[in-house]
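> call design_seq(struct)
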């Protein structure tokens, strides 16, 4: 589940830089929203959670879907 401003939506982890991260570790994680597209600005604060695992960070890059 991803929380970013008023956005609350399930997301899939597409890539993760460090598989094992602990408290105060930094890494890059790529998400893809599962149900609908969302409007997110770079620099926005993000919180993600799965069970007891939680992460907090900043949106550094937004990838647009390929036109097809």
């Amino acid at each position: 589940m991803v929380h970013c401003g008023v956005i609350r939506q399930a997301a899939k982890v597409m890539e993760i830089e460090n598989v094992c991260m602990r408290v105060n570790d930094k890494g890059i994680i790529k998400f893809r929203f599962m149900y609908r597209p969302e409007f997110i600005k770079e620099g926005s604060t993000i919180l993600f959670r799965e069970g007891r695992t939680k992460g907090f960070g900043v949106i550094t890059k937004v990838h647009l879907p390929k036109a097809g």
